[in-house]
Amino acid sequence: MIRFFAAGSFALFGLFAAYQALRNYAFAGPKVPAKSLPDVQTPAFLFERDTLIDASPSGAALIANSQAGQSDRDAVIAVLSRQFPTLKETLSTLGSGCSVNLTATGDAGLGLTLSERQGLLRIALHAPGVEAATRRYEDLERESILDELNMLRLITRDTPQLIWTEDPQGHLIWANAAYLSYADRLMPDDDRSGRVWPGERLFVDIPPPLPNDPRTFGGRHALQLPGERAEHWFDITAVPQDGSVIYFAIDANAAVRAERAQQEFQQTLAKTFAQLSTGLAIFNRKRQLATFNPALLDMTGLAFGFMSTRPTIDMVLHRLRETRKLPEPKDYKTWKEQFSALEAAAKNGTYSELWEMPDGQTYRVTGRPHPDGALAFLFEDITAEVSLTRHFRAEIETCQAVVNALPDAIAVFSPSNTLVMTNAAYDTLWKREDEPQMLVQDLRGALRVWKARCGPSGLWQNLENFSQIRFASPNVSEALVLPNGSHLDCAVQAIAGGMTMVRFASAVAQLENSPQPPRQVYA
Questions:
Q1: Angle 331-334-338 (CA atoms, 0-180°, nearest 5)?
Q2: 438 and 445 Cβ atoms separated by less than 8 Å
Q3: Cβ neighbours around 397 below 10 Å, total
Q4: Alpha-carbon distance 165 to 244, whole Å?
Q5: pTM for the whole thing?
Q6: Strands (E), 335-432
Q7: pLDDT digits (tens, 9 = 90+) for 192-232
């Protein structure tokens, strides 16, 4: 029984294995091509999309001198397009599973096969006969090298750069046309009969490199040509290679002129800033002090040694606080918050404050944004201006107090008949709380009030025309009759600055104590 079961199991296993073999044979797809080339003598290339994954030795030799940065596929197309001009267009239209044969232009015996299978592109050259094929492939490789050599010759001939090669002792080995042109211009006029190989180095101040030193070095050097005042500047780079040194010199005249113009401009600005009476401090984007002028040192008392270390804004503010050149806040936290907001406000160009110092000086500090994130702070000493303003304000207040102490009612009008000032007696006499203030802001409004509270008088007409008659009659006076029967002397007088003073004398107290009659308007 056990034997029968074992035999049946082996039979079922054999049938299952045979079924799997038949199934794999029936459903097997096409074989995937190998990602390598067979050992061939002819130039051949195998690409997966644009990536070269294999090449025959002769094919690799064809693209060995390809340009830097050029892909392998572009290098193959560039080399083979000389004999097969339609290669690039044919590759762009080659479908999957297709194969195309191309014939070389001018050589019917040289062919090119393009085949694509499952994403792999094979490019192979072929020619009848081993010796003829080898000769054709060598000619093709030689043409590629000669084309590249001609291109390099054209580049070195037409480049505006000065390129030359020297041996370790500094003797000239090779030079391009640009170098020879400058060497010819350095020669005396009587020696310029023809092109002569330069016997001396063009840049004598460049030291020869040390033996076996592979480091690249460079610098900026000047060349003075005979009969020319201006120097010719070059940025020179030296590259040691194979026992010699290759030099590259780039024209740097524009850069040197720009740097000199910038230096002259900076010197002009520095001289201008030095003459300013306003303190100036400019901080760069890192908030380090970049520029300051002597006026800032005089105003703040900061030492030049400290400022020359390019301190930050915080360091400058702390030093100013230590020397009591900052407004002293009530507490340190408030002070820190104030100057944290100072930088943010200066970025927007909105920072402008008056700093009143403990010693009585007053500074106007203004923050202004500059390009590249820089900040400029202007410090103006306005102590004299503030003192003068305060003095004028005190004088004005004193004059107003004196005028208010006078018993006569006084009103002063500007040349344009605008009410400039009144005293307390005038306000007591003419102003009423129930009247709008706009009615008495000029002479016309004041006349309406005076006419309404006084009897008819010819003074009103003279007062309206006073600006015209003031030179002939600088003083006009007349007695006015109030509705309660009292008299009021009115005098109109021209004063300095083209102004007019109107003065009302006597009957002030009587007018105050008498009942106010109803308002009347006299024609």
A1: 140
A2: yes
A3: 10
A4: 7
A5: 0.47
A6: 352-356, 362-369, 375-381, 409-413, 419-422
A7: 555 557 767 888 888 776 666 667 778 888 888 888 888 89
